[in-house]
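Ticket #4471: structure output looks truncated?

Reporter: J.K.
Steps to reproduce: submitted the chain below (317 residues) through the standard prediction queue, then opened the result file.
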Amino acid sequence: MAENSTHHYISTFFLVGIPGLQNFHCWIGLPVCLLFALTLLGNSVIIITIKLEPSLHQPMYFFLCMLAMNDMALASSTAPKMLGIFWLDAHRFDFNICLAQMYFIHTFCIIESALLVAMAFDRYVAICIPLRYTTVLTTTMVIKMGLAGVIRAILMVLPCPLLIKRLPYYTKHVINHAYCEHMAVVKLASANTLINRAYGISVALSVMVLDLGLIATSYIKILQAVFRLSSQNARSKALSTCAAHVCTILVSYTPALFSFLTHRIGKKVPPSIHIIFASLYLLVPPTVNPLVYGVKTKQIRDRVVGLFFPNKEISEN
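Returned output as attached by the reporter:
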């Protein structure tokens, strides 16, 4: 009874932003705003282009549409609050809203990983068993794969906020981060958080190991099939169809792995560096993905040029 009378549960968190760089928040907000605007613009163009061009109504581009929608959702769950911190000094965040942001951020990240696996499988079928491409990757199968990725993410992340809700938060309410990240929130609890930490790490490791393993397996099979081709031109053409996807994998997983490792074992890494990389992990891939696919994929590039420069398209034809 004495403990209940002297302790009060906190109802809000205070998000610092980037520790040590508070004086530069207004300037840091500029690239964040630019990345957010480019994410919305670039991914909208990708979705509209695929919708308007019948020749792009193929499994590869359906997955790309899903990726574009997920990227916009991921950026929208992060960037507005960051800009509120950097430009409006809106540091306070309701406890439940913070948990909701944490849930959506991690859910969208796992969906992104699942879509990259699906796109790797698409390239495997297209290159290794091309004659069965249309029968294996039907529209129904594409929808099922997308739904499986969404359901997996929802179920894997759901225990995180539920486990946090059972923890008492009495005194610590300052989050040294620019958004509500799982481990940053867990550390503030006034109780043993072993279960929360173990579950968070197990989810992150299982997703990375499983998804990267499936992607690596797909590309090992793809390389084996490509190098069995006798024509150099055929090899180059087959590999070029994978270039955009490989770039997306590198852009997505490199900062994710760095952020994960520095948060767990990088004790000497300054907090500002960790937070900057964690923020880049959420903001850069959604911005870069449409640029990569727009430049590397001829069908999309030609269609976008046709949409914005119709006279040029006519003159070339």
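Triage note (M.O.): checked the attachment and the full token line is present. Residues 113 and 208 are 8 Å apart (CA to CA).
Status: closed, working as intended.
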